[in-house]
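Minutes, methods subgroup
Present: GH (chair), OT, SY

1. OT presented the first of two proteins processed in the latest run. Sequence and structure tokens recorded below as shown on screen.
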Amino acid sequence: MPMTVTLDTVLAARGMTGKQLAARVGISETQLSLFRSGKVRGIRFATLARLCLVLECQPGELIAYDPDPADLAMPAEPD
């Protein structure tokens, strides 16, 4: 997947643990862990906004995009 979660870098820079962040944002540690590992298919904008508010960052600091040219391949058109 071309999206990489970079939350751990931001947490380290802020000297904050995942447990502290989850408590301040109001989500479970399990939800945060799934996001950190990239195992979620999406995140609500409201949750992303709370993460950014608590961490004093921008969404782009939490998620990186690494383009993969294969993602641009067009599927074959049906006959």
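2. SY then presented the second protein from the same run.
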Amino acid sequence: MPERGSTTWDERNPQAGTPKDSPRSARSLRRTGFLVTFVLGGLTATPPLAMDMYLPSLPQVTDSLHAPAASVQLTLTACLAGMALGQLLIGPMSDRWGRRRPLLAGLAVYVVATVLCGLAPSLEFLVAFRLLQGLAGSAGIVIARAVVRDLYDGVAMARFFSTLMLISGVAPVVAPLIGGQILRVTDWRGVFAVLTVVGVALAALVWFRLPETLDPADRHGGGVGEALRSMRTLVADRVFTGYVLAGGFAFAALFAYIAASPFVIQEIYGASPQTFSLLFGVNSVGLVVVGQINGKLLVGRVSMDKVLAAGLAVITLSATALLLMATGVVGEAGLFPVATALFVLMSAMGLAMPNTQSLALMRTRHSAGAASALLGTTSFLIGAVASPLVGIAGEETAVPMAVVQLAAALVSVGCFVGLCRPWNRRTALEGAEN
């Protein structure tokens, strides 16, 4: 198989066909390049859209469904678990049948599940429908990464992931702001009505504008057994597993913040839903800006391992500062210092997230769907476990959030150092040949 670089698949395969379910010509792909990038960004924005627009309404859901805060947070956990498990199924499916068909099927089910979430009569039904929403929404996450791996490699892939962060990063900036404003005119069910409209629009864009990127010759003809063998081979690669776990536990620190911040910022520090939405948006801007610095200024000039190490170090230091403030070791902290520490932590994700994905996917030239599934499943499963832990001590303390974030950051650093061994250049080169 030819070496992948910054060129498109079709530039390496000029005889590819042009139907929607076949790889398009290089000219067609270049002509729609910006729109394809926008669509991929929208697909990777599925998690923040499904999670962040809903966040300001969590206290309202607690009152509306007469459920405790810890139980309502299970709606986040269910969505995360669905996104994790769905990727294990849909990723290998996309290696077998191409990217478009599994993606369109997943988006269709996502729209139906989102409608059902808005109609849920009880917390139990809402948790179940959020699980289905996550299962279907995982198609966008896993297939978007696989499409990038189909088209790019190395530095070009890392830069493209940073570009996707710019586009998908708009979602966490805008989503909670929209969610807060929706609550001015309707209740939490209206949030799901807006999410339904967004899902329909994204499905239409995929149908009309996203080309197939996986050559039929590169598709796998086997079933579940072959998919499991592919995943077993990937997991056996120590360095690949190290990047997957490092990224997964960094993601857990991020989702501990997502799950706890509505209660920490609004209940403990007394901020309004609109103020919380504004702070959440500012933090997301930090993530996007640092992601662009990573892609435009650092990648290609500084080793991705070094940039990743810096990102993990900043996340760890920020989580330490949050724990010291939450426990009162440094005195009584107000909203501003806590918000500042959260901003720094979120911004550092712009260094950790694209580089863990790129470094892991660089380890495999085949089975991009399976590799992407392992990346996503690990991250969301760890996030799903971390999310309910932040509410274990109730709504009056931020200590559980800080403890979970610091523990996740330390484990992430341990996996990076112990498994990836970034100082060993020979290991990196050997992995590129697998």
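Chair's summary of item 2: Residues 1-20, 22-32, 428-434 have pLDDT under 50 and may be disordered.
Next meeting: continue with the remaining queue.
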